[in-house]
Amino acid sequence: MTTFLGLPALSSPSQPAAGARPGAATGPVAGRPTVILAYPKIDHEKDYVYHWMPFSLLTLAKPLIESGLVNVVLFDGNQRDKQAWEAFLDEHLDAAVCIGVSIMTGGGQIGHALDMVHAAKKRVSCPPVVFGGPHVNVLSEQTAVHPLVDAVLTGPGQNSILQYVQSLLGRLPRRLVPGLRIDDGEQVLTGKPNPPRTGILGAYPWSLLNVADYIRDDPTVAPRTLNYVSSQGCVYKCDFCYEKIYKRKYSAMLAGDLLDDIADLKQRFGINGVKFYDADFFVNLQRAMGFCDGLVERGLDLRWAASINPNDILKARKKGLPLLERIAESGCSRLLMGVESGNDRVLDEVVKKEITREKILDVAADIAAHKILGSYTFIVGFPGETDAEVEDTYTLIEELRQLDPVPETRVHLFAPYPGVGELWDKAVAMGFEPPDSLEGWSRFDYYTSLTPWTSEETAARAREATRMRLAPAR
After folding, report:
1. Is the dihedral of CA 166, 169, 172, 174 positive or negative?
2. Span 109-166, pLDDT tens digits
3. In this structure, are 145 and 229 located in the same domain?
4. How far apart are the C-alpha atoms of 65 and 17, rounded to whole Å?
5. CATH assignment of the domain containing 411
6. pTM (predicted TM-score)
7. Which of 61, 120, 312, 397 is deepest in the core (most CB within 10 A)?
């Protein structure tokens, strides 16, 4: 595979050199092979009008660029169509050492990924294709056997992508690549374990994207809002949640580094809002307080939104930290909270939320008292959930809507997520039949009724109870 070292690098989006400021335009280096990173289109929430930046691929690009071994190019299928992908392959495939594809379960992304890879595989110069991402992390063996998949990487990709590329270049034995699995139908090769902790995030190579394409008018935040991910993992035990694969390990940017990057994005792109897509932005209360204080001290004048667990607020109270006060003072306009259920048995025994209905109401009232928009999500149709317990969820929603400002509410149908928690096993035992192939999972739609005990009436009521200020595209 070392023959790739002699290939000329074709033109690509400018990328920062090692040690350069994120987004600094330095360009590709002649003579280096190229890594193609592909983010397939997501059919999100019935053609939802906005899409966020492909942070999963930005985190992969960073160690690759800093290594100095390869040039990196990135294709976002949410921004560009099939014809653009063909032209992208025309430009970059001959110099490519591999194609990295990130996939999640649901949203149609797997199907789009298979279409993209099929187009690449029809070309004689197609290099190995490696899959990673949330779906691979829970169903690596099933993914690895697919004929379009040459390899998979499980666990945090930033821990393994550079080593995988080094193995392709003949610089590292494949058995030393963290999380690697190769299954050609006759033999299986696996690498060493890939730990769930990812280290410090951030310093994203923004120049791989046209950042302006991702700025949006979000009525719950600001007219020029950009999405951002500053942490990975979660410390809570919610049984249905994908974050459990990180084994309750949490990695995050330092508050100062995050503030530096946000200030840079504001200066260069004129953003006035940030919407964090961290699983829980407030796991580290000191980091969260430092971020809030930094926004005020630097006079950044930004509106922002993030996800929070109700227990974060209760922990802050116990420590005497004025968390909600600082959040409000720093310009936070919206807090997203997964409530899941209005019934104490479901919260305790099924979801393992470590919270009660009474405390949820208390926390939500506190959020409203600080004039922050609460956005609360719920799930109905858990295995073994009774009609009376579902009714408790809807009565809780009605109580929350008495608050001022009136919160957003979103009700999801329970969708069994492969390999995550006891709920998966319970769903299968109660008659849920999971897909048995990658193609099957490409048709998995967690916004519709997927379980035999969930009726269309249940789905219709959930849609009716969903009240958001930002609606899907019409």
Report:
1. positive
2. 999 999 999 999 999 999 999 999 999 999 999 999 999 999 999 999 999 999 999 9
3. no
4. 7
5. 3.20.20.70
6. 0.89
7. 61
